[in-house]
Specification:
Helices cover about 80% and strands about 0% of the residues. With about 450 residues, the chain is an all-alpha fold. It has one domain: Growth Hormone, Chain: A, CATH 1.20.1250. It binds beta-D-glucopyranose (BGC).
């Protein structure tokens, strides 16, 4: 199964493309690391900094708010100063804010630095797929853009490992939060070595440099047609010259925006981050001891990475729709399993494995479908004139929905029981499935410009 993406990557030449995509995807690593690190670190922070319950929640949640603001600002910056420089800045801010968190002497100070960190995470979350989609050739774009999702899931796993490794150290939480400065610095320095994207260059009137970059990116690629690609980019740029952000709301772009927003909301409303943030809680409620619950959380993290690799390998072969629909159907089954498990006292006392099986199926299904496909699709469906703004809107909504779900999971569990919450997410998965089947287009293997011409 692996072979198409790998073969295509081999035939696509000189390594430059892989190098720039991997560097850009470090943005995903920062995103994932933060998602994963905080639950472990919080255990120590709360005693060390005497954080109240409110402050503890703020330490976690303020990052999500920062991410929304970061996405808003960089929707503008990515057009203004280029995708590349936006990512350089985000790497620098990330590294500094990570150090700020590590050296915080009060809960208030930590909350402030977590907000700044969030600005950078929100930026990284969509400028990474934006950058990669604009340098990748169509036939491997799905896999390459999803390097970013692979980096997110690896970041989450890395954070679990780091939390585990430092837990016996003095000042453990400071180390847990501080080591993130390293990938932040690597991102900033790495981004200095990559070119600005050909699409951004054309949009800013520098066709000559755009062609040079494209030649560099396609060097050694036996399928490359630099003239054809340049022509398509230039034509689209001409056509889209007048596209403004307001067209997103009123004009022909509105249906596309709805698709992006629906994907953004669905990605969070199926409850993925309750699993990521609360897996140890869910599992220890099944009667496992807390250390077994932690070990099984690592199983969830590894499954997430492994199935994202599967997605990277298959997206350009089976297409986005096939994976999105299969993945969402899998989520639905997993949510029903979890719901049934928590509604039956007999299952809970005899069949603890079922909860773990449900969680593993859930995360595998997310990793092949909604996880990568949301970020990929929003980098593909919008025309260049509105792309970064539209992606920013979808990203803000995604972080907002993330915030909402994370804030409500525990209180919702109290109000309608844990099984009730899983059945609620299952109902939302059904709605998503219907919407995706009816509305989400296939974008596999086509030039970005071709996709947008068709959709518009
Ligand atoms: C989502 C995150 C989630 C992660 C899990 C990402 O695509 O946007 O909210 O934590 O996947 O793998």
């Amino acid at each position: 199964m692996s072979t198409t993406f790998v073969k295509e990557m081999r035939s696509s030449g000189n390594g430059t493309l892989v190098r720039v995509s991997v560097i850009a995807a470090i943005g995903g690593l920062l995103f994932g690391y933060d998602t994963g690190v905080i639950s472990g670190a919080l255990l120590f922070i709360k005693t060390d900094l005497h954080a109240s319950t409110f402050q503890q929640q703020a330490i976690v949640a303020v990052l999500l708010l920062g991410a929304m603001v970061g996405a808003l600002i960089s929707g503008y910056l990515a057009d203004r100063i280029s995708r590349k420089w936006t990512k350089v800045i985000s790497g620098i801010i990330y590294a500094l804010a990570a150090l700020g968190c590590a050296f915080s002497v009060s809960a208030g100070m930590l909350i402030g630095f977590r907000f700044i960190l969030g600005l950078s995470v929100g930026t990284a979350s969509f400028v990474a797929p934006l950058y990669i989609s604009e340098v990748a050739p169509p036939r491997v774009r799905g896999g390459l853009v999803s390097f970013n999702q692979l980096a997110i899931t690896s970041g989450i796993l890395l954070a679990y490992i780091v939390d585990f490794a430092f837990k016996g150290f003095a000042d453990q939480w400071r180390w847990m939060l501080g080591v993130a400065a390293i990938p932040g610095a690597v991102l900033a320095i790495g981004m200095l070595t990559v070119p600005r994207t050909p699409r951004w260059l054309v949009m800013n009137g520098d066709e000559d440099r755009a062609r040079e970059v494209l030649e560099e990116l396609r060097e050694g690629d036996e399928h490359a047609d630099v003239d054809g690609e340049m022509r398509e980019i230039e034509e689209a740029n001409e056509r889209e010259r007048g596209t403004r952000t307001k067209d997103l709301l009123s004009g022909r772009l509105r249906p596309l925006l709805w698709i992006g927003i629906a994907l953004a909301i669905a990605q969070q409303f199926v409850g993925v981050n309750t699993v990521i943030y609360y897996a140890p809680t869910i599992l220890s409620d099944t009667g496992l001891g807390s250390s077994a619950a932690l070990a099984q959380t690592v199983v969830v993290g590894v499954t997430n990475v492994v199935f994202t690799v599967v997605a990277v390998l298959l997206l350009d072969r089976l297409g986005r729709r096939a994976l999105l629909l299969t993945g969402t159907a899998g989520l639905l089954v997993a949510l029903l399993v979890l719901g049934i498990y928590f509604s039956s006292a007999t299952l809970q006392s005899n069949d603890g494995w079922l909860a773990l099986a449900g969680l593993v199926l859930f995360i595998a299904a997310f990793a092949i479908g909604l996880g990568p496909v949301f970020w990929l699709m929003i980098s593909e469906i919008f025309p260049v004139g509105a792309r970064s703004k539209a992606m920013a809107v979808c990203t803000i909504i995604n972080w907002g929905a993330n915030f909402l779900v994370a804030q409500t999971f525990l209180s919702l569990s109290n109000a309608i029981t844990r099984e009730g919450v899983f059945f609620l997410y299952a109902a939302l998965a059904v709605l998503s499935l219907v919407f995706f089947a009816l509305r989400v287009p296939e974008t596999k293997g086509r030039a970005l410009e071709e996709i947008q011409e068709d959709l518009a």
